[in-house]
Amino acid sequence: MGENNKTDEFPYITERLNEQIAYYGKKSIRLQREYYILSILNIIILAFVPFLTLLSDFSQIYRYIIAASSAIASIFSSILLLRKTKDNWLEYRATGEALKTELERYRYQVEAYEKLDKKHANDQLVTQCEKIMQLEHSEWYNRM
Fold first, then answer.
1. For residues 132 and 48, what is the distance between their CA atoms, to the nearest angstrom?
2. Are the beta carbons of 103 and 133 closer than 8 angstroms?
3. Helices (H) and strands (E) in the chain, counts
4. Of 8, 36, 50, 106, which one has the greatest count of Cβ atoms within 10 A?
5. CA nearest 107: which of 124, 94, 90?
6. pLDDT in the model for residue 1
7. Tens-digit pLDDT profile for the chain (144 aa)?
8. Residue 121 CB coordination number (10 Å)
9. Nearest to 77 by CA among 33, 40, 38, 46
10. How far apart are CA 135 and CA 10, in angstroms?
11. SS3 assignment for 54-113
C-alpha cells in the first residue's frame, strides 16, 4: 500500500476524501483572501481619517468624507466579525491539512494503520476522516 497507484485506490478516497480536501482548500483560500482584503482596506481607511480631520476646517466636504470613511470601516469590521472570516479560514485550513495527513498515514501504513489488513485500514481511514470532518462541522456550528 506504500505505493500511490491511483487506479486501484480505495473508492472512499476518490469519491469523498479528495473532494473534501479540495473543498476545504478552496474555502480556506477564499476566506483568507477575504480577510486580508477587508482588513487591509479597513486599516487604510482608518489611517486616513486623522488626516481628513485636519482638513475638515478648510471645507465642509471633508466632514462627509470622514463620516463615510468611518462608516465603511465599521461595515468592514462588522462583516469580518459577523462572518468570523479569520476563524473559519484557519479552521478550514486545519481540517484540510488534517485530512491530508490522515490520507498519507493510510497510504504509507504508519501509526494507526501499521498493523492493519486492507479492510481494517480502509475502515480506519473512513472513521478517522469522518471524525475530523464532523468535528469541523461541530466547531463551525459553535462559532456561528
1. 44
2. no
3. 5, 0
4. 106
5. 124
6. 45
7. 444 555 468 999 999 999 999 999 999 999 999 999 999 999 999 999 999 999 988 899 999 999 999 999 999 999 999 999 999 999 999 999 999 999 999 999 999 999 999 999 999 999 999 999 999 999 999 988
8. 20
9. 38
10. 23
11. HHCCCCCHHHHHHHHHHHHHHHHHHHHHHHCHHHHHHHHHHHHHHHHHHHHHHHCCCHHH
**CA pair distance 91, 66, nearest whole angstrom:** 36
Long-range CB pairs of 70-76, under 8 A, 24+ apart, other chains included: 72/45, 73/42, 73/45, 73/46, 73/49, 76/38, 76/39, 76/41, 76/42, 76/45
Residue 101 corresponds to which amino acid? T
Q: Which residue has the cell 504509507?
A: 108
Q: How many CA atoms lie within 13 A of 62 on its CB side?
A: 12
CA distances from 11 to 44, 81, 91 (A): 49, 39, 26
